[in-house]
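Notes to self after the Tuesday call (sharing in case useful).
The group wants a holo model before anyone commits to mutagenesis around the pocket. I volunteered. Ligand is adenosine-5'-triphosphate. Logging inputs and output together so the record is complete.
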Amino acid sequence: MTSVRSGLHELNLASRRAEEAAARRFQAVQWLHSVVGQLGIPTQPSEKEFISCLRNGMILCNAINKIHPGAVPKVVENYSHLQSFNREYQLPQAYQYFENVRNFLVALEHLRLPGFEASDLEKDNLEFGSVTKVVDCILGLKAYHESKMTSSGNGFYKHIKTPTFQLSATKVQPLSASKTSRHLDMSSVRDKNDCIDDESDKLKVIAKLFADHIFNSKENIVENLMSLEHGSENSRVNFEKIISRFPELQSVFKNFLSEGTLKPSDLKSMPLEELPVREEDQSSRSLLKKTNSNHRRLLKSQEKELAVLKTLFINTKQDFKEFQVHLQRDLMELGNQMQEMSSAAQGYYKVVEENRKLYNMVQDLKGNIRVFCRVRPIFNREMKGVIDYIGKDGSLFVVDPSKLQKDARKTFQFNQVFGPTSTQDDVYKETQPLIRSVMDGYNVCIFAYGQTGSGKTYTMSGPPGRSASEMGINYLALSDLFLICDKRRDMMTYEIYVQMVEIYNEQVRDLLAENFTCTKYPFIVPNIRTCSSEDDGLSLPDATMHSVNCTRDVLKLMEAGEVNRAVSSTSMNNRSSRSHSIFMVHVRGKDTSGGTLRSCLHLVDLAGSERVDKSEVTGDRLKEAQYINKSLSCLGDVISALAQKNSHIPYRNSKLTLLLQDSLGGQAKTLMFAHLSPEEDSFGETISTLKFAQRVSTVELGAARAHKETREVMHLKEQVENLKKALGAEEPKNVSYSGAKEIKSPFSRPVATTERTPPRLRRLSIENCSNTKVTNHLEDRKGVKSPLPSRRAKRMSLEGPKPCKTEEQAKGDLTMEVNQLKNPRSPVSSYQTRAVKVDGRTSIPQFQLLQTPDKGSSRNEVQIISVDSRTNGKSSHIRKSLRTIGKLINGSEKRKENMPTDPRSPLGVSTNFSGIKSPHTSNAKTVRRQSLTGVMPSGPERSRRSSIGGNTNPIEINGVNGARNAKTPPPMRSPTKIGKQWA
Ligand SMILES: Nc1ncnc2c1ncn2[C@@H]1O[C@H](COP(=O)(O)OP(=O)(O)OP(=O)(O)O)[C@@H](O)[C@H]1O
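Result:
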């Protein structure tokens, strides 16, 4: 490491030195530029560019002449006058440069300034520090110039050597022109007027010719000559080559040889510096020697540095290799760890996925209301958020801004949580399987809950003026349903109808009624039917029904509905919905074998709960807010009652809960979207929404059931109907069976029913008591004006069954039994039938219930009554047929339930269990719930299904449903033809 560090230090030193040299060079160029004008090179030239521009000596001579006029009397600028000379001597052009360079160096000498050697301008000498010498010389000249300027030309200047000057300064000697350097010696030969002897002249000519050749060819003659010492063949050949190129040199050389002054053998063994020279050249030779020794010293030190650098480089290389090996090893380990982690993660995700599936399955079996949570983005960037973490597994952490770190965190768990960045598509993807099951005959309800401005309308419908990617669930669901229609075209034909209503100030208003005017609200829907799915699938038969065939139709209707919806601006939301909107999609399907299905999708956008102090509403808005909050509180009560498995579920306390009764208590699949505003100041509302959502997620509705009927079942049902009719016609004399006839009269029936109503669940009666207004309303609807039946019913249910009956009462019982036969679908009625049997009233001889374990569990199931001795042979035969058909239907139903559902339904898996795990007798259900939840049943005879989903009003059960059974088409008050068609 130390070697690396010292190496780096040296490198730093070298780079600093190079920087310093460059700075000095640029300074020299700048000065030259200011003195002689354009140099034709960049202001920051490379060493090569710098030297090449000075090589002809012109710039140097001009510069010295500027600061000391006449220092170089004659500057060779145009070589044309030398043409004759060139021709005579065949001199290369390079020689001409020496004229200037020599004169410049001589002038420098006169001025006693540091100089350099002409060879320093050669290209090959660049790397030996020659540029430094030239730069030093020019900077010396500059300093001289400046001192001359400041001392007003008194001419006194003493050159102060800079450290970098030292090397070159050693060569500056007060030499004559002939002694300055080898080149200068040679050039002085050219002066024909000088008195020199022949030999010297010849030597100088040879030297000059050599120098020129070296300069032009850039051959390292010194090295070549040096190599001659070692007798290198190549060197000799090179030397001879050089000589052979110059005929005049050859002759001079030959003369030398012939005169014996210089023998080739001497030449061979002697380095150039040691060639015998004349006395007067001794000083220049010594200078040359000195210079060479300096060079050698420099070379040696550089060699040393190079060796250090080499070792440094080798060490670094070694270190680097080691480092590389380490790195590779580490990388390999990291790769292995990553692989392990990724396989572990994969395994984890698989397990999570499996868990989710299993959890969903359990939820399907229990019929849990699924809860998705959606957090909208924060609009005010300065506002802090309370959402701390959103997990993929449906976990959500919120932070209470008013508390310290430790207690601040609250955790919630839902089926799915969508963060602020989730798109409408992300949300729909998770909802899709549920929505698709509508096409398999399941009733589905999706409702959006949350404080005002939290994004309910955004999720359900999309923002106002939405683009295709912003379409909400309502639109996407319909598009999807159409897609499925298209895919299944070969097997099924579907009809899709929509209704859209709102509950505004506890009034149901038809948003799609023709000529709707917001100011008058004439389209108030009078009737909400509960348990409608048991009959015609319409809970709001009086609302306009529109057939839709494509998404465009849906879009038009949705837009119309939205225009009609009550919306106002509050301080919490510019377009706050002031009503609960319910978009109902009715699907009716018929397969190629004649089987039918019908289902309903409720898409509910609830109005937002709001704190009136925060929303700052007054007048009408305040009234609206109060209605909204009241109905939401009723929804909360229903959810609480369902979650606690109370016997009394207060559906009737508001129009909203009454309308959602089927979805919250029936056999539907239900999903709630809990919407959150993540801002700090909404923390209170956020927590209450989350708590409500958490409670909703604990509600178990029991396994959902598809409303499908095969052709076989339909056929058998038809037969049953016919046989029943035939039986009714056959036995008027044998049995006091007036009820079978009377059932068609809505007025006579309630009396008989009231008289013989078997003991009912206590909660139902309480519910009726608690809301006499609603009961009265329903009674009105049925045309029963007298409050007596309901009062009677209440009394009876509170009192419990009466043990003894008169003959007349027995007849009444018969009537009741027949009514139940007419209405076999209600789980409550089946329960009642059993109750009758249990409490001993089965002593009535004419009718006895079969001991069917699944009695009352299926809509398609037929209750078989035993025949007493008083029936004649024909009716006995009919009854036998009825029994056989009943068995057939029951068997077929069970087979159907055990059969796997349509594989195209993503939620089909769950339905596989329906036949096995969804027993419908209250006992079986209680046992199942107990096994799934570990919660003990609240009472031995209590059926939650019957308490939740069953019809709670005896009058309604026997009245409404009975009436509907009696007159087959459902009572569509027909605002459109479609309504009739549907009915
Ligand atoms: N996920 C989201 N992404 C972007 N904008 C959203 C999102 N959710 C809601 N918004 C915007 O927030 C505003 C309020 O949303 P929205 O009207 O849907 O709330 P709301 O819960 O229906 O309110 P209210 O109960 O008062 O009717 C709207 O401008 C809507 O576009």
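Two things stood out.
The chain has a mean pLDDT of 67.
The first strand starts at residue 370 and ends at 375.
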